[in-house]
Amino acid sequence: MIAVIDYGAGNLFSVKNALDFLGADAEITSDRDALPRADKLILPGVGAFPDAMRMLEASGLAEAITREAERKPLLGICLGMQMLFDWGFEFEKTRGLGLIAGRVDLISAPGLKIPHIGWSDVKRAADCPLSDGVEEGDRLYFVHSYKAVTDMSNISLYAEYGDVIPGLVFKSNVFGCQFHPEKSGSVGLRILRNFCELDL
How many Å apart are CA 93 and CA 164, to the nearest integer? Predict the structure, then answer.
């Protein structure tokens, strides 16, 4: 079973609908005690990094997520991906979950509109289980103003938007998509299917 974590700031139902389409056994839950019973976890997210982290901390979900991520696959999506890192700098410096080394900064793209919204080609930096079957030049759907800054060894797919924009990051059994796989057509569904079929 895949637990889609509800902490009050997630794009839950589009993710759940995509998982249902793939035939995955998935449940939306805000119960931290339900996470140990799940086989995999998905952390969606929309909104601001500080607010989302405060909600995760206040609910006890932050502690539960970091504990469970030591032993099962976790996928963060959009803001959920950003919170996997050590620090976020949206409005104020805020500690993240610390599951992947790095920080989250405002995109630097002189002459380009921020937020970065729309379909972008992705390039491959490294192989990981979730990028299996994704080709250079495949297009994925992004909506964000902040980007992860991390070692290239943690990046599987990236886009270019005035800068390198990490699209798919990974560290051991922890994964993150800056793009929205649930809104990215067949390529996004392929990535979600790869996560559903992970056997780590």
Answer: 22
